[in-house]
């Protein structure tokens, strides 16, 4: 099976509780894009318009490998409407408050999945019927873990352990798959000269010239390296210079990892049939048919994201959470950071299982992009924070094995 062969195969439309008005402090815009992630595109629009990026607000980061529509507000009376072949930024009117995650009700998905054989198509339809009856685990998907270094782990875990230098090393020297070649080259040079702050500063100055202006995630490198060149052990002060938006992403990635681990272990302990799908930060475990009691339990279950005051709903989930933290060497109290205050760990509740609404799967059709193969279309609506790609993983899962 192939996902996102072309952007039009994965369409995501944000459903929000915000409307255009004739006047207001904020301009309300509809951002339609392909081939861009939300932050990089908004930074480009900011640079092109001359309006500071800090005046832009959005509710969620949308995948670059998709055709997405989402709402953005800008604290400016100017009309920043602009259009290019791969995006359109159109003002709808005004509103009295900035856009934020709390205004998102959900996302509507329209997807086309390709390159099935007949047996795979039958299995997909069978899995869809199981999802309608029992939902699917509400894991955070791989997109959430873009800041995780495959070898060195999570910046937030290093911070929680007081490993300030290690956190900085990941921040300054780790590259991501989607980074352009200039960024990957700079990160490689920084890693080769790690700890030699003047040499790293020189590399960053030279590398900045080859990086597209406004590229997300590189604004703090030069100030941090200037500080370290002058104050070689100023690790905490350097970490305090990381923008709040970036630090929030690092914290969110680690919370997601820990939360996923608790859910995976909970499902593994149910004693029901399941199948496993590999993930960047650990496998995703999908259940097959659930008993009535298991289904009722999981349907009602909400677990908080890890934080200092996270209270899990029952003894089972609390014990699993304690087990995960113990294995990672994290004490719950360490989530209450005192030295870094630009971002926080919040115990936001999250449903363990999601049931897609307006869920429909079409019949197999010939795939025009892959002769001799089949394609299937699906539409569904998911609540805020749930991943359409995770539902796709569940729908394409192999038959569940018996534990």
Describe it for me?
This protein has helices at 38-49, 118-134, 155-160, 164-173, 181-192, 197-208, 221-230, 235-239, 244-268, 292-300, 315-328, 388-395, and strands at residues 2-3, 10-16, 26-34, 56-58, 67-74, 82-84, 87-95, 104-116, 136-137, 274-277, 284-287, 302-304, 349-351, 353-354, 357-361, 365-366, 374-383. With 403 residues, the chain is α+β, with helices and mostly antiparallel strands. The strands form four sheets. Strands 1, 2, 3, 4, 5, 6, 7, 8, 15, 16 and 17 form an eleven-stranded mixed beta sheet that branches. The longest helix is centred in the middle third of the chain and has 25 residues, at 244-268.
Number of helices: 12
Mean pLDDT: 93
What is the overall shape?
A: globular
Note the main sheet: 11 strands, mixed
Would you identify the regions where 5 or more consecutive residues have pLDDT less than 50? Answer: 213-218
Task: Using brief descriptors, characterize the structure shown.
12 helices, single chain, two-stranded antiparallel sheet, 17 strands, eleven-stranded mixed β-sheet, 403 residues, alpha+beta
């Amino acid at each position: 099976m192939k996902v996102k062969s072309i952007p039009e195969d994965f369409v995501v439309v944000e459903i929000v509780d915000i409307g255009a008005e004739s006047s207001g402090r904020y301009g309300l815009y509809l951002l339609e894009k392909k081939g861009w992630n939300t932050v990089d595109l908004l930074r480009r629009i900011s640079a092109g318009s001359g309006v500071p990026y800090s005046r832009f607000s959005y509710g969620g980061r949308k995948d670059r490998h998709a055709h997405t529509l989402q709402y953005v507000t800008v604290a400016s009376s100017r009309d920043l409407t602009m259009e290019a072949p791969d995006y359109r930024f159109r003002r709808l009117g005004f509103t009295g408050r900035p856009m934020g995650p709390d205004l998102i009700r959900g996302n509507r998905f329209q997807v086309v999945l390709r390159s099935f054989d007949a047996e795979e198509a039958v299995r997909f339809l069978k899995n869809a019927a199981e999802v309608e009856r029992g939902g699917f685990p509400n894991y955070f998907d791989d997109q959430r873990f873009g800041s995780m270094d495959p070898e060195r782990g999570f910046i937030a875990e290093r911070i929680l352990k007081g490993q300030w230098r290690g956190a900085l090393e990941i921040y300054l020297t780790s590259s991501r798959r989607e980074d352009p070649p200039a960024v990957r080259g700079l990160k490689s040079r920084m890693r080769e000269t790690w700890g030699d702050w003047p040499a790293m500063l020189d590399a960053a100055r030279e590398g900045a010239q080859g990086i597209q202006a406004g590229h997300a995630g590189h604004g703090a490198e030069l100030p941090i390296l200037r500080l370290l060149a002058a104050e070689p052990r100023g690790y905490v002060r350097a970490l305090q210079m990381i923008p709040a938006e970036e630090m929030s992403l690092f914290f969110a990635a680690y919370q997601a990892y820990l939360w996923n681990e608790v859910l995976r272990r909970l499902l593994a302990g149910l004693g029901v049939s399941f199948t496993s799908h590999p993930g960047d930060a650990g496998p995703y475990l999908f259940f097959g048919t659930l008993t009535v009691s298991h289904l009722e339990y999981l349907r009602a279950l909400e677990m908080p994201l890890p934080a200092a005051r996270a209270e899990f709903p029952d003894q089972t989930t609390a014990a699993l959470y304690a087990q995960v933290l113990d294995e990672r060497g994290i004490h719950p109290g360490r989530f209450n950071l005192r030295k870094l205050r630009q971002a926080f760990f919040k115990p936001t509740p999250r449903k363990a299982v999601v049931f897609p609404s307006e869920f429909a799967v079409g019949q197999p059709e010939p795939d025009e992009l892959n002769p001799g193969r089949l394609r299937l279309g699906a539409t569904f609506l998911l609540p805020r924070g749930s991943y359409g790609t995770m539902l796709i993983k569940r729908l394409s899962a192999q038959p569940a094995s018996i534990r």
